[in-house]
Amino acid sequence: MNKIVILGILIVASILQTMGLWTGGKMPWYSLVGVQMDNTLYPITPESIWINTGGKYTKAYRITDSQNEYDAISSQLQEALLSYNNFEELGYSMGDWQDILTQKGIIYQYSIPVTIDEIVGKSVPLQYNYKIDSVLIKFDESSASQTAIYLINEINEYYLEVILHNRDYDFNKIYSMFEIDNDNNNVIQYQPSITDIKSQFIRGNVFLANTSEAIPLKYTPIIFKNDLIDTANQMIALEGYVDQFFEKPIMKETKVLFGGTIEFTEPLKSIVRYNNSGVIQYINLVSGNTTNPMTRIEGYDIAVDFIEETQAISPSIKENLYLSNINIDQGAYVFEFDIIYEGHKVNIGTNMQRKLDITSAITIKVKDYRVVEGKWITYNIYPDYVSGTRLISEGYASPIDRMYSNLRSLGVEQPIFDSVELIYVLENSNSVINLNWGVQYEGIWYVP
């Protein structure tokens, strides 16, 4: 079966599944209670999915083709786990998680620790509230009648093993499809950090791009631009963005605040503010009246639905998001989403965060089954084809060594890095942004 046929099956299955998960009706921020969820929700999406070749010198390839393809492969994991009926008997094992990640198979990697409920999309009976960093679907040609799924906590070093019998979930076909596509010297291989000599400097596991002079990574620089600033009829364009947040848009009040912020208000209903720095803030003034406790996955689904339905969020941002953090603020879940472009994170630098007064590209606060506040950038990301294709030939060892030396010179004895990746760092708008090696230390990205 060729790739197109396989993807067609997966995408149709994904669409049908999504139709079954979501119900119609008003958007969640219009309602006091919001969308009433079915028993099965859309799971938290992994930040990245990898094909792992397996063995002592295992290599990995990132799946980056299209969003539909990514979602379809992601939904296969949910479908498989939904068929498992023995969660209440599922125990954990300590140690050896590094060996598991050297197995041949598909790896789902999450940007934050998630619960099994949030991977499955529904509440399941468990002995303990396990937190999962990554999932490996083992590819074993000798055991076609069963599927082994490993749910791994990399920081606390434990894992759970789920064995599914008598069903083919297309994981083998997915693996074979991408193994063939990536079986050439022009595709960048990634090295699991747990198998590298630099693993002592990195917390958990990250996938390190094996770039070199012989096989450089080719990329196109990007430009970060607020198109609203350059729009001749800015107010007309802005009103077109914000009207969807009001029940009676024609009745909304408009005023300019100190500093130039434009505020739109529907009394006792909604406030929307636009700052010329390139940020929109939405505030829901309607009080909730539900006493039913809301789970984190329910809040996540409402936040994702809000983003999908919001016209004021640029498609170039909306289509390239990953969940970067979850906090709790005054009983509300605060979901932070950031940008990942062509498989590389787009980090909004400290100066840009200060200028925009944000902590992430999109922040959505959900309480009582409704969005109570949202804040997001109005920027677009454009590939800068004028600059042409550029190359990254430096390997990961050098930036790790430079960052380690920098911290040691500041008196840090044994620094451990959160991540080492090729990233875009946004420090200014309307300028060309190149890809560079970034090292994350104590939650902050540096380019050593």
Topology:
Blueprint: H1 3-21, E1 48-52, E2 60-62, H2 67-82, E3 92-94, H3 97-100, E4 105-115, H4 116-120, E5 131-138, E6 146-153, E7 158-165, H5 171-181, E8 190-192, E9 207-209, E10 217-219, E11 222-225, H6 234-242, E12 253-256, E13 262-266, E14 270-275, E15 279-284, H7 296-309, H8 315-318, E16 321-329, E17 332-341, E18 344-348, H9 350-356, E19 362-367, E20 370-377, E21 380-383, E22 390-392, H10 397-409, E23 419-426, E24 432-433, E25 435-441, E26 444-446
Parallel strand pairs: 18-23
Antiparallel strand pairs: 1-2, 1-4, 3-7, 4-5, 5-6, 6-7, 8-9, 10-22, 11-21, 11-24, 12-13, 13-14, 14-15, 15-20, 16-17, 17-18, 17-19, 19-20, 23-25, 25-26
Which descriptors would you attach to this protein?
disordered N terminus, seven-stranded antiparallel beta sheet, 23% helix, alpha+beta, 3 domains, twelve-stranded mixed beta sheet
Structure description:
With 448 residues, the protein is an alpha+beta fold. It folds into three domains: 3-210, no CATH class; 228-378, TATA-Binding Protein (2-Layer Sandwich); 384-446, no CATH class. The chain is built from ten helices and 26 strands. It has helices spanning 3-21, 67-82, 97-100, 116-120, 171-181, 234-242, 296-309, 315-318, 350-356, 397-409, and strands at 48-52, 60-62, 92-94, 105-115, 131-138, 146-153, 158-165, 190-192, 207-209, 217-219, 222-225, 253-256, 262-266, 270-275, 279-284, 321-329, 332-341, 344-348, 362-367, 370-377, 380-383, 390-392, 419-426, 432-433, 435-441, 444-446. The strands form five sheets. Strands 12, 13, 14, 15, 16, 17, 18, 19, 20, 23, 25 and 26 form a twelve-stranded mixed beta sheet that branches. Strands 2-1-4-5-6-7-3 form a seven-stranded antiparallel beta sheet. α1 crosses α2 (67-82). The radius of gyration is 23 Å and the shape is globular. Mean pLDDT is 86; it is low at 1-7 and 9-37.
